Amino acid sequence: MHIDHVVLAVRDLDEAADRLLASTGLDAVAGGRHPGWGTANRIVPLGDDYVELLSVVDRDIGAGTTLGRALLELTQDGRDRWFSVCVAEPEIDATAARLGLTVDPGARTLPDGTRVRWRGAGIEDPARPPWLPFFIVWDIPPQEHPGRMPAAHRVAPSGIRRVEVAGDAARLRDWLGGAEVPIACVTADGPSGVRSVAVGLADGGEVVLQGAR
């Protein structure tokens, strides 16, 4: 079990990507569309993991889904805000059964028209608070993982180093079944949820990504 990606809800994908590149040197490449959710994304590839910029691009469809409504609410003032963390879980069926989640198939259409597929649990479960991760297992070869997409970064990222969330540490530990995943609970003002994502750099430094910008 490890962090697969962290989702940043944005109002406009291209504008958010431009801000990210200018402020951090991290490039966000075109990812594709999720027809069933009315969403599209851009991917910040980091190797074994990635940051996903996610936006509702078809409001008629998006407003009718749990995920779409959450994204619209998070970005209603035009600011980017973290949605949640996604954890890769090879034993997704057992984990979902333990937590009372449903495992659902998912797919995304890439800009070239090809499809990538996965199975996920918890992303649209209204009982899952936003600071607890949802789960994924990819139905693609490892080299086709979104974190491996080519990107024109101005820095040399080495992957997600840690994620900080405002939430309950004991409940997070139980949710993950005791697995060691670099998600830390912190004390913070305001609602619970993801607070920051630290991306390691090859030179030993890091870029800390905040939400609400």
Please describe what this structure looks like:
The model has no long low-confidence stretch (mean pLDDT 93). The chain is globular and about 40 Å long. Strand 9 (157-166), helix 5 and strand 10 form a beta-alpha-beta unit. The chain has 213 residues and is of the alpha+beta class. The chain has a single domain (2-153), classed as 2,3-Dihydroxybiphenyl 1,2-Dioxygenase, domain 1. The chain contains 5 helices and 12 strands. The protein starts with a strand and ends with a strand. The strands form 2 sheets. The protein has an 8-stranded mixed beta sheet with strand order 2-3-4-1-5-8-7-6. A 4-stranded mixed beta sheet has the order 10-9-11-12, with no helix packed on it. It has helices at 13-24, 59-62, 66-74, 92-99, 169-175; strands at residues 2-9, 29-34, 39-45, 50-56, 81-88, 103-109, 115-121, 134-138, 157-166, 183-185, 193-201, 206-210.
Topology of this protein?
Layout: E1 2-9, H1 13-24, E2 29-34, E3 39-45, E4 50-56, H2 59-62, H3 66-74, E5 81-88, H4 92-99, E6 103-109, E7 115-121, E8 134-138, E9 157-166, H5 169-175, E10 183-185, E11 193-201, E12 206-210
Parallel strand pairs: 1-4, 5-8, 9-10
Antiparallel strand pairs: 1-5, 2-3, 3-4, 6-7, 7-8, 9-11, 11-12
